[in-house]
């Protein structure tokens, strides 16, 4: 029992570090690849944690917050999914099966916090601003993020592990084999969901060709993803004119246009960041 | 990077903004999104700029508690511009205060357009591609490289964005919109991002159809037939199917459930394996 409580606390802290991404420069700490690795480390099976992390990362590759959308709560899904799977000496499929519903459930909790707790801090900051108290106004930023989002996520993860792991064990024992097999198949299919979400944001009729190009290069030339990324970067530089030849032309009749083009180039370099 | 000569601020003041900007998304809220993080990052500079003008300071705090949102790694760029403009406001009596928020608002859309496609669609996709391909083999370099590949450019952009924003101020915005650089940047980023997504569809989505047609030595698997047309066409078609479902307005949870259902049904019937 003592070690169960200890593990629950560690997992809660891992989850809070994951959400701490938003305190630490939106640095991707909440991604399954990081969360599952740390969970694996805490439970004494780093290797399995990393492998599960990779699979969950692919399943959730399209889940991220752009603009005002809030993605499924991947932190709790990753940490609990991995913890239960490793505790069960079980496969990646188990982590996914548990991780995805957990992520959707905790998203509801997170949204409740967003709706009922966080606005208090937003309005309190307005009041401090009106008094000209910058220090207290800033404190609302720090406290709001911690009390309304970070701490609840830690609590949900810690408590779920404390009370849930034996219940989850019993649940897993009654799942028939063909369902487990089916979920393994689904694990292979799930990345398609993430890629479809990415395409939705990026694709239009001017750039759809490059999706097909990347696919064809990978399939027919067997170039790994990194290679395709390098080719894609070169292509992007060529197509946007960065790598075009802008040297002096021998024919000088349209010297005005040349100067204008050359000037533009200098501007690009200044403005690159 | 060198700082433009300033009567009111030192390099150290701007560095305080740089560090505080890491918390930009910490108290992200539905109502005004990044406002608490933005105001928090402005506090040290504002306190210095309006040292003896409390009424001006209060107005400035309130200004920066307004709605704001941008790709988090680029937040220092509008912050730099805001600081430069607040400084102008304090030095010139006839400065039009409304332009400070006008510029912020004008920047939100285009800057997020570039930022989201570059950081989410390109940089993170590359980091994920390299990270997961190593992590799938249980290699600890997977999560480590994932974090490094993403965060080194992200922190550099955050750092230089501040100085560029501060030094060039508001004239910068007008300039890049006129030269069409904004469009070029987002187009180039989408070319690179989509090529990588195409390659990831080919290498990371797994659809296997071991189901055989015919009997004895004449039997061919469905997989073999499809691969004869275009290798990996099944992952491609499946991804496009999910993309289509999403376009039809299917909710994410339903798509995820459907994928799990297809996996279980396919495995149960022996079509997928």
Automatic annotation (TrEMBL), chain A:
By its UniProt entry, which InterPro entries does this protein fall under?
A: GatZ_KbaZ_carbometab, PTS_IIC_man
Q: Does the keyword Mitochondrion apply?
A: no
Q: Which UniProt keywords apply?
A: Cell membrane, Membrane, Phosphotransferase system, Sugar transport, Transmembrane, Transmembrane helix, Transport
The membrane-topology field of this record reads: Multi-pass membrane protein
Q: Where are the transmembrane segments?
A: 58-86, 98-122, 142-164, 170-198, 210-239
Where in or outside the cell it occurs: the entry states: Cell membrane
Q: What is this protein called?
A: PTS sugar transporter subunit IIC
What is this organism's lineage?
Bacteria, Bacillati, Bacillota, Bacilli, Lactobacillales
TrEMBL record, chain B:
The record's InterPro entries line, in alphabetical order, gives: GatZ_KbaZ_carbometab, PTS_IID_man
Parts of the chain that traverse the membrane: 144-164, 185-205, 225-245, 252-272
Task: Give start-end of the signal peptide.
Answer: none
- What are the UniProt keywords, alphabetically? Membrane, Transmembrane, Transmembrane helix
Q: What is this protein called?
A: PTS system mannose/fructose/sorbose family transporter subunit IID
Organism listed in the record: Bombilactobacillus thymidiniphilus
């Amino acid at each position: 029992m003592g070690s169960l409580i200890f593990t629950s606390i560690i997992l809660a802290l891992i989850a809070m570090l994951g959400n701490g991404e938003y305190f630490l420069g939106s640095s991707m700490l909440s991604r399954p690849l990081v969360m599952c690795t740390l969970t694996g480390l805490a439970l004494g099976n780093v290797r399995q944690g990393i492998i599960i992390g990779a699979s969950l990362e692919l399943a959730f590759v399209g889940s991220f917050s752009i603009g005002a959308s809030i993605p499924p709560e991947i932190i709790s899904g990753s940490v609990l999914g991995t913890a239960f799977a490793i505790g069960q000496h079980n496969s990646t499929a188990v982590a996914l099966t548990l991780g995805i519903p957990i992520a959707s459930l905790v998203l509801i909790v997170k949204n409740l916090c967003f709706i009922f707790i966080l606005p208090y801090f937003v309005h309190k900051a307005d009041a401090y601003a009106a008094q000209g108290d910058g220090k207290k106004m800033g404190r609302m930023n720090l406290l709001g993020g911690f009390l309304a989002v970070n701490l609840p996520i830690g609590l949900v993860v810690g408590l779920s592990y404390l009370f849930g792991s034996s219940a989850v064990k019993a649940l897993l024992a009654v799942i028939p084999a063909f369902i487990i097999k089916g979920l393994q198949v689904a694990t292979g299919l799930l990345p398609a969901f993430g890629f479809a979400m990415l395409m939705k944001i990026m694709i239009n009729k001017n750039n759809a060709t490059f999706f097909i190009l990347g696919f064809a290069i990978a399939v027919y030339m067997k170039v790994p993803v990194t290679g395709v990324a390098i080719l894609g970067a070169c292509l992007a530089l060529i197509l946007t004119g960065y790598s075009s030849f802008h040297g002096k032309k021998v024919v000088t009749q349209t010297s005005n246009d040349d100067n204008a083009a050359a000037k533009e180039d200098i501007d690009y370099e200044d403005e690159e960041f | 990077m060198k700082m433009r000569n300033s009567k009111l601020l030192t390099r150290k003041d701007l560095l305080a903004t740089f560090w505080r900007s890491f918390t930009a998304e910490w108290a992200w809220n539905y109502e005004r999104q990044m406002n608490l993080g933005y105001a928090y990052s402005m506090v040290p500079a504002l306190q210095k700029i309006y040292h003896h003008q409390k009424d001006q300071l209060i107005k400035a705090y309130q200004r920066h508690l307004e709605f704001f949102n941008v790709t988090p790694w680029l937040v220092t760029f509008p912050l730099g511009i805001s600081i430069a403009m607040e400084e102008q406001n304090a030095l010139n009596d006839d400065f039009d205060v409304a332009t400070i928020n006008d510029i912020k608002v004008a920047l939100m859309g285009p800057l997020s357009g570039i930022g989201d496609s570059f950081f989410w669609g390109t940089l993170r996709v590359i980091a994920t591609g390299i990270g997961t391909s190593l992590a799938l083999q249980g290699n600890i370099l997977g999560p480590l490289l994932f974090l490094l590949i993403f965060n080194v450019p992200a922190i550099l952009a955050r750092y230089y964005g501040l100085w560029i924003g501060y030094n060039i101020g508001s004239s910068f915005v007008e300039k890049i919109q006129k030269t069409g650089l904004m469009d070029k940047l987002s187009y180039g980023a989408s070319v690179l991002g989509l090529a990588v997504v195409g390659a990831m569809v080919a290498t990371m989505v797994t659809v296997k159809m071991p189901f055989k047609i015919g009997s004895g030595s004449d039997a061919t698997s469905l997989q073999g037939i499809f691969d004869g047309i275009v290798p990996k066409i099944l992952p491609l078609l499946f991804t496009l199917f999910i993309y289509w479902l999403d376009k039809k307005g299917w909710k994410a949870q339903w798509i995820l459930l459907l994928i799990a259902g297809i996996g279980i049904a396919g495995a149960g019937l022996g079509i997928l394996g």
